[in-house]
């Protein structure tokens, strides 16, 4: 009995590694099947984590001379790597322009009250255009002095769906000091603040589940361009996933026929590896600013191992991206997006 127990203890780490590898391989596969079931889309977002775990597993199996397991783990590691490669930073040579604009998008997180951090960052970054998601009355008060420096502003307020049980648990896990149900506002806003005057500005109609966005037309150095500030719903239940997909489709239909330089920036609540996001890119023919600039996983800020890129900057061909980067942690569960661009 003692010998059997000793053998089991010695083989236990190998069994854990085998189960872990098999699970990651299964999740890698279901990530490609996200059209079949809403839950599979959630497994499509963690390609970086899958790659590293499988690469480590393949290495461990190689040292243990488990060649078949090592080969299988290596194959699926490479499958995930192939999806990551387009976002690996490259030394891009971008022609400098003296007419460069900066847009800044921040999902403030309605539970966050780090007004000083946000104020300091906005002041330091000096954006020409500022998009604020999860913008509440409390945030408007907390940023009053900073926002007053922007001569042009617009705020679109819309109803928020009731919190889902899964969403509430996720929020509680990542920020255990706050209660989602207690602090969730019935309505939140997207705020747009600019040093450039609005040529035209629109937002969604406040129907039960609008596409939360603001759309503004600007003119800069004689050139017109359109900027969308976006915040789509988190797809953590079947119903919310259906709403998010409809929002993506509606937004794509709004964008695809525009004949002017266009920028979309904000929280899309989906990663580049979702089939629905790929459909959106195909319909709109927009470019992902993070391609070649680095993945920049943007959520959740408190927990590094699970960070995924769900905040995006997308541009039409007439926009030259000078720089795409993220700002510091300002107490939100999202990192800010900084886009420096010029208009061809």
Main features:
344 residues, alpha+beta, 6-stranded mixed beta sheet, 11 helices, globular, disordered N terminus
Ordered list of secondary-structure elements with their pairings:
Layout: H1 2-30, H2 38-42, H3 47-63, H4 67-84, E1 101-107, H5 115-125, E2 129-135, H6 137-142, H7 144-147, E3 152-159, H8 165-174, H9 180-183, E4 187-194, E5 200-203, E6 213-220, E7 223-231, H10 238-255, E8 262-267, H11 275-284, E9 287-288, E10 311-315, E11 319-326, E12 337-343
Parallel strand pairs: 1-2, 7-8
Antiparallel strand pairs: 1-12, 2-4, 3-4, 5-6, 6-7, 8-10, 9-10, 11-12
Helix pairs in contact: 1-3, 1-4, 3-4, 10-11
Give a verbal description of the structure:
With 344 residues, the chain is of the alpha+beta class. 38% of the residues lie in helices and 23% in strands. It has eleven helices and twelve strands. It has helices at residues 2-30, 38-42, 47-63, 67-84, 115-125, 137-142, 144-147, 165-174, 180-183, 238-255, 275-284, and strands spanning 101-107, 129-135, 152-159, 187-194, 200-203, 213-220, 223-231, 262-267, 287-288, 311-315, 319-326, 337-343. The strands form two sheets. A six-stranded mixed beta sheet has the order 3-4-2-1-12-11. A hairpin with a 2-residue loop joins strand 6 and strand 7. The longest helix has 29 residues, at 2-30. The protein is globular. The N and C termini lie far apart (77 Å).
